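Suppose you are handed only these lines of text.
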Amino acid sequence: MRRGAAGANTVPRPRCAPLENIVLAPRPGPRIADVGRAHLPPLPLLHPLKILRHALAAFVTVLTLVTPLRAFSGRPNIVIIFIDDMGYADIGPFGATAYPTPNLDRMAAEGRKFTNFHVPQPVCSASRAGLLTGCYPNRIGIHGALGPAAKHGLAATELTVAELVKQKGYATGMAGKWHLGTPKQFLPTHHGFDEYLGLPYSNDMWPRHPEAKAGAYPPLPLIEGDHVIKTELGHEDQNQLTTQYTERAVKFIEQNQDRPFFFYLAHSMVHVPLHVSDKFRGKSTRGLFGDAVMELDWSVGEILAALKKHHLDDNTLVIFTSDNGPWLSYGDHAGSAGPLREGKGTCWEGGTREPTLMRWTGKIPAGTTSGDMMMTIDLLPTIAHLIDAPLPAHAIDGLNVWPLIVGEPGAKNPHDGYAFYYEQNALQAVTSPDGRWKLQLPHAYRTLNGRTGGTGGIPAKYENHTVATAELYDLVHDVGETSNVAAQHPAMVQQLEAFAEKMRAELGDVLTQRKGSGSREPGRVTKSD
Ligand SMILES: [Ca+2]
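From them, the structure of the protein bound to calcium ion can be written out as follows.
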């Protein structure tokens, strides 16, 4: 497995000059002109030549302070919009027709659509761990969806995207669902975010969820920083979440328009139980689900409008994607994976291939589509490349894919393959680096087996099915994983089996009773905490 110290981004890079610390002091900080003035002596009555010398000294002082700021302004702002449980075909650019998504349509027209962009695991906490650390989530001890009582979370020693960009003086903020540990020490403000507003975990871990047994969940809190600011959210509070998160993001952009910033907007919707504000209630022909997507589209529009208003379009990378595929058992309250097989909670394409858009005016070619395979774990090293930041010394799994993102001629995926783990360290599938070939390894998975899902927020029951022997799929010609072509391509099966073995040696695999050598422990609450 490649280590951060051996990857493409690992050339030692100069640390920030001390002056950047002055320029990037947290707001409200001194304005550049004020800082310059603070360094000037008072101007007594002096000989004209002395006045000239003072003036020259002042000019040089101001110049040295301003120069680093100008150099720094070349680093892009980054906004990641992470939707919860949105399916591959749930937005206009990916085929949704039952409701309009004009802002996402515009984002696709002004940016690039990625049709083969994946998450490493098809479930909330694990997926978020991969996005934020550039690691396969099982490498860092995070799997599944952490419950409110979980006593573990993202280890303090892991490096998040927020901590990465802070090394370069970025302002960092987050709104929305965290889900990487509820005890205070694991919350976003302890992982590199200057500010945070949101839910510590999923909005269905809630006493009012229609399926929640009495006493199963504590009251669902709203958190600001690392303090609970509302102890028990009700339905109307959930109705306001999309609006509230969006307003926070817009305010953050406004406040930080003059310095590089990173904002992570992790919406709670369209995870069940679905909620929407009055702005969009009843507005779609697809019920509450369509209404909620329309509100998310509105949210994207607000972000793009804020960037435009502050003239940041050509210096801001905006990424839109989802943490896993649709929760199909919820039927009319679930999204659609379109042509893809299965959904959330499976390593079929419907579970991990996400509707993804990226926009950076002048850098990412507008109105284009990429079919190259990429994964959220690649974003941290790609961002490190963009801002010239050092990668962590510990091993990570993602690699810089910027040449693929911008469509450089001849660009190739730098990986040996991608691994899809699920449950507690079960290696269920692997793909070739170009994303064409996928080997489904023997494992059990959940399926509705052709039945429709539930209605009104009550799910249907899944059945368990099994992949008995490894199955090979040609995703270029069969994106729906309908025809096992293992018998026709034995060499490809062998190649992917070898990659799977390499992953088992590194990260282990409970399905073949293997222990890996490269895994790390999550953070845990200790008695002294
Ligand atoms: Ca999710």
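What can we learn from it? Residues 84-85, 124, 271, 323-324 surround calcium ion (CB under 6 Å). Confidence is low (pLDDT under 50) at residues 1-47, 49-73.
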